[in-house]
Design brief:
globular; mainly alpha
Length: 393
Amino acid sequence: MEFAHVLLMLVVMLAAAKLLAETAERVSQPAVLGELLAGLILGDSLLRLVDPHHEILHVLAELGAVLLLFEIGLESDITELFRVGWRSLGVAVVGVVVPAVLGFAVSMLWGQPTLTAAFIGATLTATSVGITARVLKDLGVLRWGESQIVLGAAVADDVIGLLILAVFSGLAQGESLSFWQVGRVLLLALLFLAGALTVGLKASHWMLRIAQRMRAQGALVTAALVLCFTLAALAQLVGLAPIVGAFSAGLVLARTEHRLRITDRATALADLLVPLFFVMMGAQMNLRAIDVTTPAGRSVVVLAALLIVVAVLGKLVSGLTLWRTRMRPWLVGVGMVPRGEVGLIFATIGLQQKVFDITVYTAVLILVMVSTLITPPWLRLLVRRYGALQKQT
C-alpha cells in the first residue's frame, strides 16, 4: 500500500508540474515557476496531497537536483569558468558579506539575541544555484559570460557557505571558534574541487573508452552517470553539497567527444526527476503557518519583509562588483538572489539547534519562498531585455 501511495503522489506531482509549467510558458514565464507553484498548491500550504517530508520523494527530488547540475555542467565551458574565476570569486564574497552584515544588523535591531542574529545573517548568505541554472538553461543563455560568472560564484558561495555553517553550528553547540576547524573544511573543499577537475578528467576518458567498447545498451550514459553520482557522493562526504560534485562531473564530461550523446541520453532522465525537485521545494513552503490576524503572525510578516529586502539588496550589490566591466551586473545580481533549498537547510539547522524559535524560522521560510518565486520571472525579463538590446546593436 505504501508503494502505491508513493506512485499516486508521483502521478499527481508530475501531472501538476507539466500542466503548470506549460501554463507558465504560455504567459511568457519560465517553466520552473509553474513547477514551484505546483508544489505550493499540492503541499502543506493548500491541498496537502503531497508530503514534502516523505523520504522516497525527498531522495527522488535530490536526484533531480543532482541531474540538473550535471546537465548544467555538460552545457558549460570550463575554460570560460576559469576565465571569469576571479570575477566569480568577487561576486561570491560580496554576495556573502553584505547580506550577512545587513541580516545581522536588522535582526539585532529587531531585538534578537546576538547568536540568533548572527545565524540569521549566515542564513542570508546562501545562494541556490538550482533555480537560476534552470532558468538560464531554459532561456538558452548558459554560454553568456554573466551565466558563467553566476555558476562560478555559486560554487565559491557553496564553499564559503560550508565554512560559515561549520562555524555557526559549532557555536550553536557551545563550541569555541576553531581556526583549525575552519582551515580543515576549507582545505577539504578546495582539494575536492581540484581533484574533481583533474583526476576526474583522466578517469572519465578511461571510463568512456571502456563503455564505448561494450555491447550492452546504454553503457556510455551509465558510465557518465557513475562518474556524476560518484563525485556527488564524494562532495557530500567532504561536507559540500552533492550538486557541486554533479556540476564538476558535467564540466569534466563536457570536454570529451561524447558530450552531445551523453547530454541527449541524460536529458531524458532529467526531464522526469528535475521537475520533482522544484515541486518538492514548493511543497515545503507552508502558507498556513502565517496568521496575520494575531500579533505573532504580524510580527513574522514584518520580520520576513525586512529580511527579504536586505537579502535581495545584498545579492544585487554583489553584481555591482562588475559595474566597470563589459558584463551586465544586474543579471548577475538577480541570478544570485534565490535561497531555495540551501536557505531551507540553514533554517532547519537553526531550528534543530534551538537558535531559532518558530517565529524566526517561519520568517526565514517566507524569505526563502519569496526569493525563490521572484527570481525566475525577474531573470526572464532581464534576459529578454538584454537580448533585444543585442539584436538592436
